[in-house]
Amino acid sequence: MPDTPRPVPERLLSLDALRGFDMCWILGLATVLTKVLEHAFPEHKMAADIAAQFEHVDWEGFRFYDLIFPLFLFLSGVSLAIALPRRLARDGRGATVRHLLARAGIIFILGVIFSGGLRDGWEGVRWLGVLQRIGIASAAAGLLSLWLGTRGLVAAAVSLLIGYFLLLRFVPVPGAGAGNFAEGMNLTNYLDSIWLPGRKYDGDHDPEGILSTLPAIATAVLGLLAGRWITGQAPPTRKVCGLLLSGVVMIILGWTWHPFFPVIKKIWSSSFVLVAGGWSAVLLGVFYALVDVHGWRRGLAPFFWVGANPIALYLCAGFGFFRIIAERLVAKPALPSAVTFVVMLITAWWLHRRKIFLRV
What we know:
By secondary structure, the chain is mostly helical. The protein has helices at 13-40, 45-52, 68-91, 93-114, 130-147, 150-170, 187-195, 213-230, 236-257, 270-293, 301-308, 310-318, 321-329, 336-353.
């Protein structure tokens, strides 16, 4: 049975700030810093190593940029822990279920359109992608939370992660056998190649494919659990310590699992879920301590602006709106990515100032 409903606290400003911090990297900050490092320190090894953190690993391993997507999905789970109790109390379970499904459908459609839609015909549609994964995984986590308490959600996350590992470890793939985690040789990629229609991001398989959606649901569930903890009755200091400690434990567990089930973002391996979830919990604990506990706001305003309209800004960036405006404002900027990023920030500030929040 679900836990007894608890009073929902005021808005978590740290959630907005951390979501904005996360989105800024996607919306151009990573590119800007990479270009700055390349121009300022063209032959400096440390600068090159730092710049490499703003790129995804090819397959196994973990860099800072590999955290951006799972962090957003984790924060979607935190948001659910705040929003669902209010909606459940106001509208009832049936209406809440319909809302979750409708929201998932809208995000899914936006994801299909964002990936090109029907531009190249039905065969060219990318049916699964970043937004589609956010819609499906967050809806699934939300639905689980309507019927499961905290212990049930923990059991669901553990079952998803262990079940996913067992499938990839013991179900044989034609021509590759069982337990092969190499690209194109694992069960996740194989199922995409035979069951996922339309265009795949990596040829015959997709990093946001069918089977890897299961551990992605676990990522959202981890965020939901963190949201329940941070909105609970524990003292603020205990909440911060709990987030930091659980984060460190998950990171250790993830890397301990790595030799047996490698940390691989492109198949959302269970070890990757733990490492990314651990860092997400640590960042949430740090932002919660700074923003909500100690009232720190200095220098964080851009994160609040961006965090208030994350998906709207993501879509605008993906469709090239900020780049087009930047090119018309400045003919030949020395650092085009910086101008584009500033245009995005100005847009985020304008929306925030006028209290326009375009959410799904």
